[in-house]
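Here is one chain, start to finish.
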Amino acid sequence: MKRSPASTARKRPVNLTLSEDLVEQVKGVTGNLSGVVESLLADFLSKEREHRSNIAEQARATAALWNSFGERNGSFADDHSTL
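Its structure:
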């Protein structure tokens, strides 16, 4: 299990509801369930932040593409507007 900067941070107890059978199986593999959960949460958070960053970047790129298209070609509504 890799150590993250969060592993040196101040700890506090939290309540989780987990499958009893799963917890017993994990305890048979490791004596540090809290450490495993913390590592998994840190990995999840890192991947989720990267995923959300990628989505935001795709949205920015799409908006830039549409803006560029609009600057080159104008708006389709310009030819049909009655205003």
